């Protein structure tokens, strides 16, 4: 195509210009990146490190959050003066203890009263420094009711002093204004009740509820929770000596411990680079003492840290936050850059017959420019879509990835091109690769020690094999002699069918879930608490229903009653002010104003628990909004909670539609529905919904990312190779690679969460690197039949890609010893990604192309065995090395 040749010619001219002033571009490029890197000083100075898992990984602007904000307009939180835990709209803050006797005997024993009472008071008096700088304790931040701190389970401890026979009457556990949703028995596990008497209980749960109505209160609560955790770690031995065992946690512990666990595995992650770079160093160390390319290979690797320095420096100078998960971006970029480096060096090896080093560099840059540009665009544009993600972690990855890949692209074609020019000038000058002194010919050193001859003489390479390392020569021979044999093809197609079948099965049974709480390290205090709570205590979330009544409650009471009857059929407990009003024989109201007066003057004085469940329009003396609650049956997994939420929303939606029709022509200023929200007449909400909100969001973001990547890939190759067969192969390969990684990850225990989402995005980029370089090499291979193309590409691009990915595969094996959830997820998806990429690179793609390759034969077909040799004479009478045509006649005509 004419335009592709113009693009390559433009890059060639640019490289020729840089090669004329290599030291200037090399030093200026490095200094600019180093200067920009000074912005990284803002990381500690501006406190840009953010490892708050809740802030970084939880979705933003979710439907549950919007619903909570709408409900708060009518029913604000009253945790400071009238706290009832079932009325909570925001996620509650608390610290919790679970206590049991060492021999698992009943804890309902008078002897434990003094111990537990003193423990309760000791915890209440834990002091901390508030955000205002004052000394504070639990009494300053606790939730209150009737001017008393609300500590769930404290009533049971108070009654232990009278349990001389090891029993407690259930009625004595129920203080005034306690609702059915606050049954103290919920704080016990493995208990028995006989004749309305608690006769035994093994586990007691004590919860310290903390005020969180304002951001300041929430921040103070967080400070006290930290103090609570540190104190309980110190109190372990003291309680154990009194035959009591306990586990403790707080509402932030899980996310905090997930974040803290990553610090234990960061040193292992650093070894990934060490192993990877050692392997790549050996791979790129070919050539004699003059042509040795180890140093120029290292400069190709240095492009990545140089780019990271410049990109991250400018971002941190702009005060963009940083988080631990961004540590995966250099791994992706360095692999991408090593592929770019090896592809460029591969083309440079084809230009050995050009006498001018500048023109050799220009040729290498010209030939590698298009695939490198294509991969860069297939990275940048999809990651640009990730910047608008609902997850802050994904947004940060998108910002850092787009900036870093752009810097890496520029540095590759400027900084690295200058390094290539310096390298080639040294070869032309016949200077030593390390000490840069002038080398002598072997003839001049004839008769000297063999070591002196090896280290002090060298010649300019004449063929590809002169610059290949031993590893490259070995893998090339194996690829050419083994991969294209009939048995290997049969193995390839059978294994491909197995892969497709496994992928489909994995996709059907994919696990979508929030963070797995059992992934916290066993050494964590949260792990112990979570095990006890999961095994012994039932999880029964409370869901609140808010109903709006534009013309008053009585006008909609029949619909609300019908809705409650539907819900009672599915759930255990229902708490409603209207049911209490009816059951306790308050006067029947014949009008809205009568109901208004009765509730205001009588009902609220006797039933304080419902004061915050009714919203009045004072001007019209009517109830315009109210709420009631249900307690669900036992929930054992996130999937069950998701299913419950869906069922309740479906029930509410049917009644909401009835009310919408009813009030279609009502005065709009009294309606809850607005044009910019989906809020209706019936709202369903629970703080527990925050943890499952947008549970499908990771899947949608993966589809958006991969869909964008696939679209860019298709459009670019449509311009480069407008062949239907070629494009279909490309699309099928990308889809199969990404779907395989996603589907098979189900078999290695990976759930679709916010952490795995990031790794799936990274996996898509590895697939792009493989596909672009191999498919582009096939489309440009200078041969007339499939066999020749296969051997040409196997000897060059496939080998380069294989070594880059295989080295990363060896490096990531280091993470086999990690334990933290984040790094375990990184390891599992990474090892799967690299394995699939390697198999596609050397097995499946070559096998498919050997049958349905893009090159149409223009001559008599030749057997592959003819090409399975190290050197082949092409019909064009040009020299070949390892099946790769040496296009010297093109160099002479174009550059000399």
> What is the gyration radius calculated from CA atoms?
35 Å
Total beta strand runs: 17
The computed structural class is: alpha+beta
Residues in β-strands, percent: 5-15%
- Contiguous low-pLDDT stretches (5 residues minimum) are 855-896
Distance between the termini: 23 Å
- Per CATH, the class of the largest domain reads Mainly Alpha
Whole-number total of structural domains: 3
Can you give the helix content as a percent range? 55-70%
What is the number of helices?
30
Question: Mind describing the biggest β-sheet?
Answer: 6 strands, antiparallel
CATH architecture of the largest domain: Up-down Bundle
CATH topology label of the largest domain: Multidrug efflux transporter AcrB transmembrane fold
CATH superfamily placement of the largest domain: Multidrug efflux transporter AcrB transmembrane domain
What would the average pLDDT be, to the nearest integer?
85
What is the approximate shape?
elongated
Task: Walk me through this protein's architecture.
By secondary structure, the chain is α+β, with helices and mostly antiparallel strands. The protein has 3 domains: about 1-45 and about 255-515 and about 695-895, Multidrug efflux transporter AcrB transmembrane fold; about 95-250, no CATH class; about 535-690, no CATH class. Helix content is about 55%, strand content about 10%. It has 30 helices and 17 strands. Strands 1, 6, 7, 8, 9 and 10 form a 6-stranded antiparallel β-sheet that branches. Strands 11, 12, 13, 14 and 15 form a 5-stranded antiparallel β-sheet that branches. A two-stranded antiparallel ribbon has the order 2-3. α13 (about 330-350) runs parallel beside α15 (about 390-430) and α18 (about 485-510) packs across α28. It is elongated, with a radius of gyration of 35 Å.
């Amino acid at each position: 195509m004419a335009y592709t040749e113009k693009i390559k010619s433009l890059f060639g001219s640019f490289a020729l210009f840089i090669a004329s002033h290599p030291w200037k571009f090399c030093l200026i490029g490095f200094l600019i990146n180093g200067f920009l890197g000074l912005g990284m000083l803002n990381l500690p100075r501006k406190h840009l490190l953010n490892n708050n898992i809740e802030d970084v990984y939880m979705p933003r602007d979710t439907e549950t959050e919007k619903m909570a904000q709408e409900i708060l307009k009518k029913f604000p939180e009253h945790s400071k003066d009238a706290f009832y835990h079932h009325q909570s709209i925001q996620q509650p803050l608390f610290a919790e203890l679970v206590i049991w006797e060492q021999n698992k005997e009943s804890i309902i024993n008078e002897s434990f009263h003094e111990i537990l009472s003193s423990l309760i008071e000791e915890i209440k008096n834990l002091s901390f420094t508030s955000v205002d700088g004052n000394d504070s304790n639990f009494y300053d931040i606790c939730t209150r009711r009737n001017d008393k701190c609300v500590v769930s389970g404290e009533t049971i401890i108070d009654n232990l002093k009278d349990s001389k026979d090891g029993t407690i009457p259930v009625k004595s556990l129920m203080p005034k204004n306690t609702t059915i949703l606050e049954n103290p028995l919920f704080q016990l596990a493995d208990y028995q009740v006989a004749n309305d008497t608690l006769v035994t209980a093994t586990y007691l749960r004590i919860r310290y509820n903390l005020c969180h109505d304002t951001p300041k209160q929430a921040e103070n609560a967080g400070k006290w929770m930290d103090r609570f955790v540190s104190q309980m770690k110190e109190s372990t031995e003291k309680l154990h000596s009194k035959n009591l065992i306990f586990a403790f946690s707080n509402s932030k512990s899980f996310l905090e411990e997930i974040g803290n666990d990553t610090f234990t595995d960061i040193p292992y992650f650093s070894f990934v680079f060490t192993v990877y770079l050692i392997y790549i160093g050996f791979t790129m160390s070919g050539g004699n003492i003059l042509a040795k390319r180890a140093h120029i290979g290292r400069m190709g690797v240095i492009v990545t840290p140089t780019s990271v320095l410049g990109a991250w420096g400018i971002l941190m100078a702009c005060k963009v936050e940083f988080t631990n998960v961004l540590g995966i971006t250099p791994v992706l970029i360095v692999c991408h850059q090593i592929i770019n480096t090896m592809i460029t060096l591969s083309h440079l090896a084809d230009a050995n017959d050009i006498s001018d080093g500048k023109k050799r560099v220009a040729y290498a840059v010209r030939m590698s420019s298009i695939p490198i540009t294509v991969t860069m665009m297939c990275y940048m544009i999809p990651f640009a879509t990730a910047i608008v993600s609902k997850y802050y972690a994904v947004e940060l990855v998108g910002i850092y990835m787009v900036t870093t890949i752009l810097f890496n692209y520029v540095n590759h074609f400027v900084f690295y091109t200058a390094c290539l020019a310096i390298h080639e000038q040294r070869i032309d000058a016949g200077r030593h690769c390390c000490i840069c002194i002038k080398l002598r010919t072997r003839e001049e050193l004839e008769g000297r020690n063999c070591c002196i001859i090896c280290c002090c003489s060298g010649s300019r390479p004449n063929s590809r094999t002169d610059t290949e390392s031993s590893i490259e020569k070995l893998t090339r021979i194996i690829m050419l002699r083994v991969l294209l044999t009939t048995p290997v093809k049969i193995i390839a197609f059978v294994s491909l069918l197995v892969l497709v079948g496994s992928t489909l099965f994995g996709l059907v049974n994919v696990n979508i879930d929030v963070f797995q709480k059992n992934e916290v390290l066993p050494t964590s205090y949260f792990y112990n608490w979570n095990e006890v709570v999961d095994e012994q205590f039932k999880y029964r979330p409370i869901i609140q229903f808010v109903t709006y009544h534009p013309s008053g409650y009585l006008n909609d009471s029949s619909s609300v009653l019908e809705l409650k009857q539907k819900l009672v059929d599915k759930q255990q407990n229902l708490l409603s002010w209207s049911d209490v009003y009816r059951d306790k024989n308050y006067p029947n109201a014949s009008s809205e104003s009568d109901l208004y007066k009765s509730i205001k003057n009588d009902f609220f004085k006797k039933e304080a628990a419902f004061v915050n469940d009714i919203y009045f329009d004072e001007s019209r003396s009517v109830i315009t909004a109210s709420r009631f609650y249900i307690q669900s049956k036992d929930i054992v997994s996130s999937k069950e909670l998701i299913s419950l939420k869906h069922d309740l929303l479906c029930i509410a939606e049917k009644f909401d539609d009835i009310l919408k029709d009813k009030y279609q022509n009502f005065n709009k200023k009294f309606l809850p529905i607005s044009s910019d929200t989906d809020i209706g007449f019936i709202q369903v909400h629970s703080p527990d919904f925050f943890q499952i909100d947008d549970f499908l969001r990771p899947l949608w973001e993966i589809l958006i990312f991969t869909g964008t990547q696939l679209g860019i890939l298709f459009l670019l190759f449509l311009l480069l190779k407008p062949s239907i067969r070629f494009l279909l192969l490309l699309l099928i390969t990308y889809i199969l690679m990404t779907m395989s990684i996603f589907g098979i990850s189900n078999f290695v225990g990976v759930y679709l969460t916010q952490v795995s989402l990031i790794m799936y995005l990274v996996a898509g980029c590895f697939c792009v690197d493989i596909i672009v370089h191999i498919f582009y090499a096939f489309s440009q291979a200078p041969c007339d039949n499939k066999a020749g193309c296969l051997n040409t590409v196997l000897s060059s691009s496939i080998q380069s890609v294989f070594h880059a990915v295989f080295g990363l595969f060896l490096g990531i094996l280091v993470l086999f010893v990690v334990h933290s959830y984040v790094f375990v997820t990184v390891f599992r998806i990474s090892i799967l990604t690299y394995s699939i990429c390697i198999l596609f690179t050397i097995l499946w793609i070559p096998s498919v192309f050997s049958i349905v390759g893009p090159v149409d034969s223009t001559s008599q077909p030749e057997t592959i065995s003819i090409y399975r040799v190290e050197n082949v004479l092409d019909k064009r009478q040009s020299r070949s090395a390892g099946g790769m045509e040496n296009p010297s006649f093109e160099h002479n005509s174009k550059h000399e």
